[in-house]
Write a structure and sequence with these properties.
The structure holds 2 protein chains of 2 kinds.
Chain A (H helix, E strand, L loop, with lengths): L1 H10 L4 H23 L6 E8 L4 E9 L10 E6 L8 E7 L5 E8 L7 E6 L3 E6 L11 H4 L5 E6 L7 E7 L10 E8 L9 E8 L1 E7 L9 E8 L6 E4 L11 H34 L1 H6 L5 H35 L4 H30 L4 H29 L4 H8 L2 H24 L6 H26 L6
Antiparallel strand pairs in A: 1-2, 2-5, 3-4, 3-6, 6-7, 8-9, 9-12, 10-11, 10-13, 13-14
Helix pairs in contact in A: 1-6, 2-4, 2-6, 4-7, 6-7, 6-11, 7-8, 7-10, 7-11, 8-9, 10-11
Chain B lengths: L2 E10 L2 E11 L4 E6 L5 H8 L7 E6 L2 E2 L4 H6 L1 E4 L11 H11 L4 H15 L14 H12 L6 E5 L7 H16 L3 E5 L3 H7 L2 E6 L2 E7 H6 L3 E7 L4 H7 L5 E4 L2 E7 L6 H7 L4 E7 L2 H12 L2
Parallel strand pairs in B: 3-8, 3-9, 6-7, 7-8
Antiparallel strand pairs in B: 1-2, 1-4, 4-5, 9-10, 11-13, 11-14, 12-13
Chain lengths: 476, 301
């Protein structure tokens, strides 16, 4: 089998059909880039925060994220001292985000303004607020000596939604700006008129938290929330303010191109998978598979070798495409996410390619590509799990936001989600597992189970089918 | 025993293709496989090649069971397809090297073996040619070269004379005869019965999934089945009485035809000379296998 495997690896790139698949995947990759930027444009915001050091000097940090969910560079903002209701108190400081959307500026001694609000204004994002807090840990150790950017707080209120809720988003920057320990947040609403949401605890999560709190917060605009952060690093409390945020409609003209890209990308990826099926179907029909099978190989050797070599080849292709996407992202957006890149390579490629090849080959060899039922079964298995995931995620997403289920399904069936789902599921799974070890059982544990079970089904079912159909004692 | 098939049965869905087929091909023997379209010839060949699995029965290649010991059995048999198809963008050399690796020939001996196989097939001069540019005849030569890799002692030839020019047919027949002289056992399926009759030792006639008969070509000759055509200037009753004992006479003017003549047909010419007949034509054609085949496939239901 090893010899056959090696010969397949050497031979397979020479076929014209493979070249066609490369072309299809590259086109798909291009659409993937489009969908990365615009398939789900609803969260456009600027995270702002600030801490005072031991001398009372206030450092303002901003983190701008555009409506496509990616960091924005070149966002110019003005710093105001809100001083409760005075929003015109321009401090004369301006910030401009660099690569990665990040900007920071030390703007002088603000110790006398403790617990007041600083607002950052930008034409695109409007006002964003944060509370002025001393940068001390409860034990009195200054934040600066810990070199820790504790930056929290932005919020949004979806006033146009069917089910209004308050979104508290927390970004934690570790000492080196990247570490992500498990953190939990307790939010206490000052002067809250919303009886149902005066004291909320959520987490544990890693690094970035988005917590949706159901309820109508329309009457609490510009009121404050105290956030108490529970973590291994004993982070200081933070104050954030509530402000209105109107989300653009999910399927507006503004987003149509992105959705078109997603749907088109989905179609082309489907075509690419089908091309693989055709490739081996052609080999079966032309007699090449027969001639190979007439050599000293078992049927299982043949099928497994075809699957493995095809998977390796497609994995290399997809790996190149993801790398290409990331490099392109770097030049366009100024961001490069190594961890995403690595996990994409490891999990976003291997699982789908192995599955695709296994399913495709199992049914191609079994049906000799002439059986309608076999082809329909191939389609069902190739996308059954994906559709299942889409329905689950679509349902969950739809129930948690105002986005209609059908649009959620379209999004989750797009190639963006096809790869992103696997990556994020793995990350969530690790997070949940880590949460079990360090805290009480988290709400990710069930998700971890689903991911593991789903992954096993996704990979094992086609392999079992392949094994059965490849058994020489089974007729075909 | 070189190739042995015992009680083979095969169905595709509800359609029964082969029913309880048993036969063997001995070392140094060339067995022809004849049958109408859909009789099951290709199915038998594909099962012997290990590509299809029989529902019932077993296949032994030099004692190795192709179902339970396929890797070993496949090394002992070569297969030449009716329409050999290879990877079109590959070269002749690349293709045969690929199959040499699949047949487990190590790199050290592969070069010499490949060259030898190409020489024997007469295609060593086109090693760098792309497969897509080869004619059917050249592809069959390549297929023969591939089938001889590893020097198996058993061969399957499936309709290999189809689509080949006379030179190609001559080459294929010489090569097959060469393998036979080397002691190889050969199963050859073909629609061209005259070709098969000229060099097969035995012919298996397949009809509707069953073996109608397995007959040796020498037995066919002994049966004395000839088609005779005589044209004389003065056919008379004496001549008719003489010829009547060889079979049914069909007279048309000066021409007399006897289909499937039996008896000592060698006495006809002396009779004509001795009795002073002015002979314009005397031919005896041996469409024996074809006639025998027609009889068998017509009678068996």
């Amino acid at each position: 089998m090893i010899k056959f495997l090696m010969e397949e690896i050497k031979r397979i790139p020479t076929t014209g059909v493979i070249v066609a698949i490369i072309a299809l995947l590259f086109i798909s990759s291009g659409l993937l880039i489009v969908t990365n930027f615009s398939s789900h444009p609803k969260d456009s915001y600027q995270v702002v925060s600030g801490v005072m050091d031991v001398n009372g000097n206030l450092t303002v940090d901003t983190y701008a994220i555009n409506q496509y969910g990616v960091p924005s560079k070149g966002v110019n903002s003005t710093v105001y001292l809100t001083n409760l209701s005075d929003s015109n108190n321009n401090l004369g400081y301006n910030l401009s985000s660099g690569k990665g959307g990040y900007a920071n500026l030390t703007i002088g001694n603000f110790s006398r303004y403790e617990n007041d609000l600083i607002s950052i204004y930008n034409d695109e994002f409007g006002f964003s607020l944060f509370g002025i807090q001393p940068g001390y840990f409860p034990q009195g150790e200054p934040v600066s000596s810990f070199n820790c950017k504790v930056a929290y707080g932005f919020f949004s209120y979806f006033k146009n939604g069917d089910s209004p809720y308050l979104s508290i988003n927390v970004i934690y920057f570790g000492q080196n700006g990247t570490t992500s320990p498990n953190i939990r947040v307790n939010a206490v609403f000052n002067n809250s008129t919303n009886d149902a949401s005066e004291n909320v605890t959520f987490g544990p999560y890693t690094g970035f938290i988005v917590q949706h709190i159901p309820g109508n917060f329309g009457n609490e605009n510009n009121s404050l929330i105290d956030l108490t952060i529970v973590s291994q690093l004993k982070l200081p409390p933070v104050i954030i303010g509530i402000t209105d945020y109107s989300e653009p409609p999910f399927f507006s003209e503004f987003t149509f191109i992105g959705e078109l890209g997603a749907v088109s990308g989905f179609f082309i990826v489907f075509a690419g998978i089908f091309a693989i099926d055709i490739l081996y179907g052609q080999q079966a029909k032309s007699g090449i598979l027969d001639l190979e099978l007439a050599q000293p190989l078992t049927r299982r050797d043949l099928a497994m070798s075809k699957m493995l070599t095809g998977s390796i080849f497609i994995s290399i292709l997809l790996g190149s495409l993801i790398g290409f996407d990331d490099v392109l992202s770097y030049f366009i957006l100024g961001t490069f996410l190594p961890s995403f890149f690595v996990t994409s390579l490891l999990f976003g490629i291997a699982v789908p390619t192995f599955s695709i090849m296994a399913i495709s080959l199992a049914f191609t060899i079994h049906t000799r590509h002439g059986d309608l039922i076999g082809t329909l079964l191939f389609i069902f298995f190739a996308f059954g799990f994906l559709i299942f995931e889409a329905i689950i995620e679509g349902y969950v997403g739809s129930s948690a936001s105002k986005v209609p289920l059908i649009y959620q399904l379209v999004y989750f069936l797009s190639p963006v989600d096809y790869f992103g789902l696997i990556v994020s599921s793995f990350e969530h799974g690790i997070s949940g597992f880590s949460g079990v070890l360090t805290f009480l059982p988290s709400n990710y544990v069930p998700l971890l189970g689903v991911v593991v079970a789903g992954g096993l089904i996704w990979v094992m079912v086609p392999l079992i089918i392949l094994y059965l159909t490849a058994d020489p004692r089974v007729k075909y | 025993m070189a190739i042995e098939a015992v009680n083979l049965s095969k169905s595709f869905g509800k359609r029964s293709i082969l029913k309880d087929i048993s036969f063997s091909v001995q070392p140094g023997e060339l067995m022809g496989l004849a049958g109408l379209n859909g009789a099951g010839k290709t199915t038998i060949i594909r099962m012997l090649a290990g590509v299809l699995q029989p529902e019932h029965g077993s296949i032994l290649i030099d004692g190795s069971n192709i179902a339970t010991d396929k890797a070993n059995a496949s090394k002992k048999i070569g297969w030449v397809q009716e329409n050999p198809v290879f990877f079109p963008e590959s070269t002749v050399e690349g293709t045969i090297t690929y199959f040499a690796r699949l047949r487990g020939i190590d790199r050290a001996s592969a070069t010499a073996e490949i060259q030898g196989a190409l020489d024997v097939a007469g295609i060593s001069g086109i090693k760098k040619a792309k497969i897509r540019n080869l004619s059917m005849g050249l592809r069959k030569r390549l297929s023969i070269a591939i089938s001889t890799l590893g020097h198996p002692k058993n061969y399957l030839f499936d309709e290999i004379f189809n689509g080949i020019d006379p030179d190609g047919i001559k080459f294929l027949k010489e090569r097959i005869n060469g393998l036979k002289k080397e002691g190889c056992s050969i199963l050859l399926s073909s629609h061209v019965l005259s070709e098969m009759q000229s060099f097969a030792d035995r012919v298996m006639i397949l009809h509707q999934g069953s073996i109608a008969d397995i007959v040796s070509t020498s037995d066919l000759a002994m049966k004395g089945l000839y088609n005779i055509k005589i044209t004389v200037e003065n056919p008379d009753n004496k001549l008719m009485d003489f010829l009547d004992k060889f079979g049914e006479i069909d007279v048309s003017g000066k021409t007399i035809r006897i289909k499937k003549a039996t008896g000592d047909v060698g006495t006809i010419n002396p009779f004509l000379v001795k009795n002073g007949y002015s002979v314009m034509e005397l031919t005896m054609t041996e469409n024996l296998l074809e006639d025998y085949f027609n009889d068998k496939t017509r009678n068996v239901k």
